[in-house]
Amino acid sequence: MTAQPVKIISTDSLQIAYLEHGASDGWPVLLSHGFPYDAHSFNEVASILTQAGARVIAPFTRGFGETRFISADVMRSGQQGARGRDVIQLCQALELKQPIVAGFDWGGNACCTAAALWPEQIGGLVSYAGYDIVDVNQQRHAATPSLERVCWYQHLFQSERGRECLAENRYELPRMLWREWSPDWQFDEATFARTAKSFDNPDFVDVVVHTYRWMHGHTVNDPTLQRLEDRLAQKPKITVPTVTIDGANDPLKPGGTADHAGMFIGQHTHIVADTGHNVPQEAPQVFADAVLTVYNWLK
Questions:
Q1: Count of domains forming the chain
Q2: What is the pLDDT of residues 95-121, one digit of tens each?
Q3: 2 lies in a domain?
Q4: Which three-class secondary structure string do you get for 91-139?
Q5: Is 58 a residue whose pLDDT tops 80?
Q6: Residue 81 maps to a domain
Q7: Strands (E), the chain
Q8: What tens digit of pLDDT does each residue of 209-222 get?
Q9: Predicted structure pTM score
């Protein structure tokens, strides 16, 4: 696929960098990545969708790529309310009318948050890992020993030692996670290097560390987002048409998320891909087909 130029647009707190694929009058799709990935994760997905008439927007989330905070005074928050609001504000800035939003990892969380809090602005949802809204109270309690072991990076980031480790190893640590989370994906160094450039963002370490400390209840919320987090703590059900996806070989999601079905009260189906964590790059056709399923429901 031909490399797309990075575009930038301003919202209340960010200058958001994004890749745009397809015709400007296509049906709108926003694809949201997570950690430690970037907007290039969706290049092959975007190619499939644009052939079906979509206009695809793939932003670099806060702390990644050329996305920048508009002021030193804006908190470098990585909490879900911030990332969900970023999705909505980007859609508004680009005048995307009820787009399908689709994401994985942090991006799945951001898209679920946007769909739960602003359903009138969202046409449909594709979410990797089911109902991906963080329950901080639950995160304060232990998981199984096997899952705690897989989540070693989250525990590392709770300390200043972990911040230093990420700052000094911002390529090697993510490369380890790619290998661990997608055990059967044979990515090449060029693929990783293309994304790793996004980790040079000056706010990368602060946003990543805040995300995982917030998730574990070990740091403060952005006070401007408390109202949103209070609503999310009530576990609002998602009403927009949704396809949820699991990766059968994802060590972060043992057993999958089929039991989340009750959290989706609109049209919903759940699929399982023969992949690890990074479905958009491991199986782009599966991810694109999920978006196309939602699009066909909406027609």
A1: 1
A2: 999 999 999 999 999 999 999 999 999
A3: no
A4: HHHCCCCCCEEEECCHHHHHHHHHHHHCHHHCCEEEEECCCCCCCHHHH
A5: yes
A6: yes
A7: 7-10, 14-21, 27-32, 54-59, 68-69, 100-103, 124-128, 242-247, 268-273
A8: 999 999 999 998 99
A9: 0.97
Of these ranges, 1-10, 17-26, 138-147, the one predicted with the greatest mean pLDDT is 17-26
Give the sign of the dihedral formed by CA 194, CA 200, CA 203, CA 206: positive
Q: Quick check: 82 and 127 in contact, CB under 8 A?
A: no
Amino acid 245: pLDDT: 98
* Nearest Cα residue to 41 out of 105, 94, 101, 96: 105
List the CATH number of the domain containing 124: 3.40.50.1820
Nearest-10 Cα torsion for 77, 83, 86, 91: 170
Provide the pLDDT for residue 70: 97
Residue 287 has pLDDT above 60, yes or no: yes
For residue 16, give every residue at least 6 positions away whose Cβ sits within 8 Å of its Cβ, in sequence order, or none.
8, 9, 10, 59, 60, 67, 86, 90, 93
Q: Are 251 and 150 in contact (CB under 8 A)?
A: yes
Residue 282 corresponds to which tokens in the numbers above? 């491991």
**Which amino acid does the sequence have at 27?**
W
Q: Is position 17 within any domain?
A: yes
Are the CB atoms for 251 and 180 separated by under 8 Å? Answer: yes
List the domain range (segments joined by +) for residue 111. Answer: 7-298
Judge contact between 260 and 131, C-beta under 8 A.
yes
Element (H, E) at 191: helix 189-196
Query: E-assigned strands of 163-219?
Result: none
**pLDDT per position as a tens digit, 166-209:** 999 999 999 999 999 999 999 999 999 999 999 999 999 999 99
Residue 137 lies in a domain: yes
CA–CA dist 47, 100 (Å, integer) = 16
Share of the chain above pLDDT 90, in %: 96
